[in-house]
Amino acid sequence: MHLKKVSKKIIFITGGKGVLGSYFHNKYKKKYRIISFPHRLEQFGKLREWIKIKKFHYFIHFAAITSKQNEKYNKINLVNKKLPIKIIKLLQKSIKKDFRYFLFISTSHVYGFHNKKISEHDKRKPFNKYGSTKKAVEDFILNKKNKFFFKIGIARIFNFTFHRQNKGHFIPDVYAKIKNKKNLINFNKNRDFIHIDDVARSLELMINKRKDKAVNICRGEKINLVYLTKKLNSMSLNKDLFFSSSKKKVNQDIYGNNSSLKKLGIKKFKNLNFILKSFLYGKKANINNR
Known about the structure:
Radius of gyration: 20 Å
Distance between the termini: 33 Å
Shape: globular
Largest sheet: 6 strands, parallel
CATH superfamily of the domain at 10-162 and 194-221 and 256-269: NAD(P)-binding Rossmann-like Domain
Mean pLDDT: 89
């Protein structure tokens, strides 16, 4: 008797060349067949053709212009808001066989600043263009999701880092500043940091369970940025690093409640030491990608 071969589920992703998209691809390429759209999102005609001819079960939309990339608002609005909505509408019209789930990669920036742990039900009030455009797509999803034939999830990702992460994110930026002995002003505030591998595991759980609600992707731990920077400084091989910061507390906190993520099945998270080591030393930190 021959056992029937179980075919791999197929995941279509945009933004596969970015840090998070490429990490997810490398981590799960043996478990799934992952199709990465090889062009920029602005080449929407090519994306339309790919969606038309490719078979896939899940779609993860990683592609975006992040908060500190030096781009004009019109381009940010196009890439982060108009095109994701256009993709969702296109998928609805396509009615592809076996397509089950769309996962929108959003951000903690949609919430704005809070003075307590942020839950998925808290008010969203973005403080920058990045958060505003992501919120606009979320609003479209939340208002229309019952009309789609597939389920849609929203992953609100808090701060994460990786050794290949470029400037424009907190840890690469602050590391560059302390190396150049630049003062860090308005810095006494709290954030929530999660390792990129824990982010990838969370996203995989969301697609497997087809979670059709917003989920905070975070460790659920408040980390003071002055403390984090001192820790990064002490762990670095650059023994002459130095920085100074204002002692005055700034009311600009963003840290999350991760009870929804824990209910999905993520019980353990890599600690802050591991997160910083993975940034400083990369593969030498003995990161386990399994």
